[in-house]
Amino acid sequence: MPLKTLVVLTLALAASGPAELFAAGDKARGRRYFDEGVELYRRGDFADALSALTKSITEDSGFLPAHAVRAQVRHALGDETGKDADLKQGLRISSLRHPEDAVARGNARLLAGDLQKARKDFEQALKMDPSNADAFLGRGRAYRSAGDLVKAYKDFTAALKLDPNLLLARYNRAYALYELGKKDKIIEDLTRTLQDNPRFYLPYGLLGVLFAERGDTDRALKAYSKAILLNTDYAYGYLGRAAVRLKLGDAKLAFNDFDEAVRASPDDYAPYYNRAEARYRRGDREAALPDYKKIIDLRLDWPPAGLTVGDRLMEYGHYEEALRLYSKSLSIAASSQVSGANRWLEKALLKRAAAYQSLREDPRAMKDLNEAVRLSSTSVEALTARGQLTLRMGGDVRKAEDDLHRALRLDPEFAAALVARGSLRARLGKTEEALKDFTAAIESAPEYADAFNNRGALFANALKDFDRAVEDISRAVELDEGNAGYHLNLAAARIQRRDYWKAVESAGTALKLKAGPEQCLLLLSQAQFLLGDRVKAVESLEAALGKNPRSTALHTMLGSFRLRTREFPKAVSDLNQALSLDSRSVRALVYRGLAYGGQGEYKKALKDFERAAGIDAKAADPRAYACQTYRLMGRSKDAVRYCNYALDIDGQHANALANRGLAYLALKEYAQAARDLAEANRDGAPSAALALARSVAHAGARQYKESDAAYREGMLIDYQARLADIHFGEASDSKKEYPNLIEPFDDILTQDTEIPESHLVRGNALSNAGHYDRAIQEYTRAIEIDGNLAAAYLDRGLALIEQQSYDSAEHDLRRAIDLDVKGPQANIALLTMLTARKRYSEGLKSAAEAVRLYPKSPEVFIKAGNLRYFLNDSVKAEENFELALKNDRAHAGAHNGIGLCRFVRKEHKPAIESFSRAIVLRPDSDRFYRNRASAYVNMGDYANAAKDYKMALDVNQDPEMVEEYRKLILNAQSRIVEEAAPEEKTKDKKRR
């Protein structure tokens, strides 16, 4: 921190009262008092000088030089009100009959900040009297204030040669040497000054600074304390001592000193500034805020302090107060004659422009940035900020690009310019170039949060790499935890990565940090909905609508929720409300079209999709969903045509690819259908239904090997999958199961009986229908044709496991592993089988090998976790389940496994949380409800346990399980009654 923020060593502050003028008396006596006061002032005896000068003015109130000198004294004692009154009188000096008159007026102008005119007055005095020491002292102070320290030093030295007893000159020379960095030469001047006048407290203040910088805290404390003893109203002595005490860890005494500084100089910004900064750096942000706000209305004479406080207020979100302070600092910098004032002027313009942008006053911000560029055409910061704002205002892209290129020619590693250019390139679709810019910014400035945030957004929006997006934006949040926008972006990226729990956390944090409440609540409700908490999701949206009932986005989101819960009439109503507010909302039209389609009102749906496409010619969704609608209407050729329109806009649109694939399947163009469905699976979320549909398409194209692989892919996603189609995110409209869809290919399969994979396809259909004996016959026939067909052994092994023929299954699975080391499915199946046979130790060896071979397979880690769990090593088991989640955040089995590990450790609340996450992802699994019910039982929460057993019963209607679940429900209900009984007995006693 610059010296001036801690100690102003040319000034001393006190709380003297305002000047009071008396009637004229004896002028000769007044001159004697004046001469006495001047001499005392020159020696640093400010209190005595004030007394003498007041007597002089009492005797002769019209003697203007006395007012000019007393203004200096009052300023030194911190009496700014009294100083102002005297200064007005001192500035009235017009007749320069004597050198003392010119010196007095020069000092008054110096005090008023008019350095050039002050210097002319001192030079006029020197013309009249070249041996006037006071004139050299005054001109030296003017030079020092303007930053010309070498000339200042020469003038102070000249003054001392003329008058060695001019202690103010010696003290000021020491101060100039300090600012020149020649600190070793200061001690001599200070020591001599104190020898000549032990009551001159300012030299002790400078000694305190010197000792503190050297780390000599004991001597620093003594020096500051001596200065304070000599002047108990020496505010900057208290500030210096407070800084030393903070360094020593004595916060209580340090803040006592800060309070004393405020008491001593309540109208000066410096005590408030230093106390606020100390509180802020200690993490007490709320306590610091009142001091920062106080500075806005106080006398401010140093632009850096105003700019720093403005930055703090911006962090608090107090943009208007920050704007006022930046404007104040700008005014000071503009009128300052200090060396380097233009640099502070430029900084103030840049910062005020940022405040205007925060207040959405972009034209005013642009005016400031244009002025900053005019001041310095080589300012990298100003060029970058102007380029960024041009883009934000939707201005000329070429002008923005020119500014950013100019900035980067001046400094090729300037991170802010790299980020701005990267943002421009991303906007223009130049993804690879944008990525290079963001990466270069991170390499240039590894602590620059905005670079990580922007690169993360690029990964999410353009590259669909949500893992890297979350990683980058998380780093931005670490670097700047108070940035609400980063938390908001992180919530969006986590939703896209299906990490809904953490998305709720990020959106909640953004809301607390006062980000845009509408956007926060939109993301919060979306994450809550995807977590299955529909009640909270709707509550979040209703809270947002309470604040902004005319929000199209909020009504649209509510409509989309109704759509997903298949409440089509309510969805239409919500979306009608959205469209009444904005009839051109493409999203609302698309969602309403889907809602109409869900009700079977296909013509209305198509009308909405056509209208949305007409509004936004670059939107792929309206065409993709029109394709879906035509397909459901049985108009497959039209469906293909509209999907082509969508894919011309977005070649990786997963929904358009999926629907075109299904339309081609209906048109019996099997090879094309298979290609589209495979690509849809790569670009969208993995879907068991689409995998089965692709298996059918491959079979129709007589691509039996690929059909078998697609079938097993679907079984890995969901081993209970039967329907091979999609319908508004749910089951097939045709309701045809996989075996029924393979059946039409019997004639082809009969022709290809010598192709071993054809038997795999037939076997898969039989296995899917539960006909394991016949399926095994087909797999065996394939092995007879080709004894080295790994897929045949794998498929037969899976069917044998279903029959609990474990020895035969193990033989087949190990054979499949030998034949195809690269395929993880045989290893996964083997681990499942070894777990079922309780061969846990042997299974762990196989698991270790599988993990080595397939480090990114979540299923391998799941199986390894199961083995650890059954070996009673719940800690390492949980680690394996966590590794599965690292590869697939939405793996229900992994969350269930973590829940079981916590359950056996009797960590019931965390276990319930994990089981709940598993249920959200797989609400059709009865064992997840059952596990959560067990945790509720152990907590004594039988009501929730009974609810979960009922849910498990609803999901699994197998006769054996039905009876078991009914017993569990009855047991839970009976415990509820038992626990309620003592309470009823107590009530009975009271009634009696």
Oligomer: single chain
Largest beta-sheet details? none
Q: From the helix content, strand content and strand pairing, which structural class follows?
A: mainly alpha
How many β-strand runs?
0
Shape: elongated
- Write down the overall mean pLDDT: 85
Total helical segments: 55
Low-confidence stretches: 1-24, 726-734
Distance between termini? 79 Å
Estimate the strand proportion.
Answer: under 5%
In short:
By secondary structure, this protein is mostly helical. The protein contains 55 helices and no strands. The chain is 76% helix and 0% strand.
Distinctive features:
mainly alpha, 992 residues, 0% strand, 76% helix
Fold blueprint:
Layout: H1 27-43, H2 46-59, H3 64-76, H4 80-90, H5 99-112, H6 115-128, H7 133-145, H8 149-162, H9 167-180, H10 186-196, H11 202-214, H12 217-230, H13 235-247, H14 251-264, H15 269-281, H16 285-295, H17 303-316, H18 319-335, H19 341-358, H20 362-375, H21 380-392, H22 397-410, H23 415-427, H24 431-444, H25 449-461, H26 466-479, H27 484-496, H28 500-512, H29 517-530, H30 534-547, H31 552-564, H32 568-581, H33 586-598, H34 602-615, H35 621-632, H36 636-649, H37 654-666, H38 670-683, H39 688-700, H40 704-717, H41 738-742, H42 746-751, H43 756-768, H44 772-785, H45 790-802, H46 806-819, H47 824-836, H48 840-853, H49 858-870, H50 874-887, H51 892-904, H52 908-921, H53 926-939, H54 942-955, H55 959-991
Helix pairs in contact: 1-2, 1-3, 2-3, 3-4, 3-5, 5-6, 5-7, 6-7, 7-8, 7-9, 8-9, 9-10, 10-11, 11-12, 11-13, 12-13, 13-14, 13-15, 14-15, 15-16, 16-17, 17-18, 17-19, 18-19, 19-20, 20-21, 21-22, 21-23, 22-23, 23-24, 23-25, 24-25, 25-26, 25-27, 26-27, 27-28, 27-29, 28-29, 29-30, 29-31, ...
